[in-house]
Structure formats: structure tokens, C-alpha cells
Amino acid sequence: TATATKQRREGALAESLITANRAIQVEINPTLKLMFASFRKVILCLLLLLMGVSNGIQMMPSLKRQISKKNVISPKNLNPTIFSMNKILIDGVKSGIDIMYKGRDIERFYTLETVARVPYFAFCSALHLRETLGDRSGCNRLRLHYAQQDNEYHHLCIMEALLGNNTNVVDRFIAQGMACGFYWYCALCYLIFPSGAIHLSELIEAHAYATYSEFIHRNQAQLKSMPVPAIAHDYYSSQLFEILWSFSSTRKPLTPLRSLYDVFLNIRDDELGHWATLTSLVQFDQSVLPQGYDPTPTKPLQN
Questions:
Q1: Which sequence ranges are marked TM in the entry (predicted)?
Q2: Residue 23: predicted pLDDT
Q3: How far from 110 is each of 20, 63, 89, 129, 249, CA to CA, in Å?
Q4: What count of Cα atoms within 13 Å lies in the side-chain half-sphere of residue 104?
């Protein structure tokens, strides 16, 4: 009897141990499965991340090239027919002025400045017409061209001050006659093809810069001994001069006025600044060159 009782107790204990073990397994197995599943997901995410980084590194040069291509702004070239017509016209006028005023530099500059400011008047007139018809997009361009003609106007005033009362009636008639005809031509060109009209001024300013540079080099000693005209002092110390270069391409720093030599240096640099602004207008349709670009002459479109 005692033996049987002992066997029943041992059997009951064994059964309870088995039941407890099964219960522990039931609780542990889901936890292990959950931990394993989470661990597997972490490993998978790490692998995907590493693959993505690797692919990104490989694609980076290609992506950079694509972005750089999208951000590159290429200068526009001009229609070859318009380019040739402009060049023939301006070269012809320049040669005619040089022949007529050979040995008379100030008279030549007087005529050159009278003609050089005309395109800016014409551009302003064309922009006024467009504005009257409802196009309000050219207001900043209008301010720019007005400031440009004002600059050329003061160049003309300086030449008149240097000539005094010595301006020949024939010289005035030639300069004013050329200016009137050129005005209507530029206005019509601007209404039809603005870039072509602006290119006309670009060529004029390039010739003006070269002409003044040659004159300064040839007459340096004489110019340094001559005084500064009052109109030059007034203009180059005024806000009108500063306004012009506040919304156009960068100009060289202003040369302090100590003699007539410095006046002509500033006039020459004004022409160079106009030229740079006009090249930007033709090639990029904006008055300030894009970052990283230097002013270069407009080229004809290659067929």
C-alpha cells in the first residue's frame, strides 16, 4: 500500500513537471519567433540600406552631370543674316565717320556720341509703345535704356564743352541727320527683332571703346596736362551715374578726375560697360551676366 501510494505521488509529480514544461514552451516559443522575425527584418533593412547607399554612390557622378546640364545657361547666338547686316551697317558708318573727321578727334567723338545715344532713345520709344498696348514686362528694361542714353548724353555734353563755340554747322547737320535716320531704323528693328536691334548698339559700343582707347594711348601726355570740364565733375559725382550701373553689368571702378586724361578713361570704361550689358541682353536676355560668365562678343548662329 505504501509503495503504491509512493508510485502515485511520483507519477503525479512527473505529470505536473511535464505540464509545466509544456506551458513554458508555449510561452517561450512565440517570444522566440517574434524576436527572430524582428531580427530578420532588421537584417533585411540593413542589407537594403547598404544596397541603396552603394547604388547612390555609383549614380552620384551621373546625377551630378544631369543636374549640371540642367543648370548650364548657354549664350544665344544671333541669326547670321541679321548679324551680317548689322556688321556691314555699323562698320560702314564707322569708316565714313573716320574718313570725314580724320585729324579732328573731338569732332569725331561729338558725332559718335550723337549717333551712339540714338538706339537707346529708339528702344525706349518701342518699349513705351508696347507698354501702351498693355505689355508691362519691359519697365526695368526701359529704366536701363534711359540710363544708358543719359550716360551717352553726358558724354556728348563733355565733347560740346571741349569744342566750345567751334562746332561746325556742317558737322552738326551730318551728326543730327545720321541720328534722325538711325533712330527710325533702330525703333523698327526693335519692334520686329529686339535682339538684332540691341546687337547694333553692341557693335557701336565696341567701336567706341576701341576708338577711345586708341585716342587715349596716342594723346596721353597732352590729356594729362588739360583740366577737367565742369560737366564731367558734375556727372561723375552724381547719382545719375550710380543709378546706371546699379542694374546693369559690372563696370570698372570709377577713375578719380585729376585731368582730362581721367575723363576720357571714364568715358572709355562707360562704353565698355555698355558693351558688356548689351552682350548680356542679346545672349541671355538679362542686363547682368549670369554668374561665371565673362562678356564676349555675340556670335552668328552656325548652320
A1: 42-60
A2: 54
A3: 115, 56, 20, 30, 25
A4: 14
Pair 19, 86 in one domain? no
Distance from C-alpha of 34 to C-alpha of 244, rounded to nearest angstrom? 75
Q: Per DSSP, what are the bridge partners of residue 78?
A: 300
233, 120 Cβ separation under 8 angstroms? no
Check whether 48 has a pLDDT greater than 60.
Answer: no
pTM for the structure as a whole: 0.74
Distances (CA, A) of 257 to 199, 234, 236, 237, 240: 31, 11, 9, 10, 17
Q: For residue 226, give every residue at least 6 positions away whose Cβ sits within 8 Å of its Cβ, in sequence order, or none.
A: 259, 260, 261
Range of the domain at 1: 1-72
Q: What is the CATH number of the domain that holds 189?
A: 1.20.1260.140
Number of structural domains (the chain) is: 2
Residue 67 has pLDDT above 80, yes or no: no
How far is Cα 148 from Cα 119, in angstroms, rounded to an integer?
10
Domain assignment present for residue 301? The answer is no
Cβ atoms of 155 and 113 within 8 Å: the answer is yes
Instruction: Report pLDDT for 234.
Output: 93
Window from 55-64, 267-276, 280-289 with minimum mean pLDDT = 55-64
**Residues 16 and 93 reside in one and the same domain:** no
Whether 115 is covered by a domain: the verdict is yes
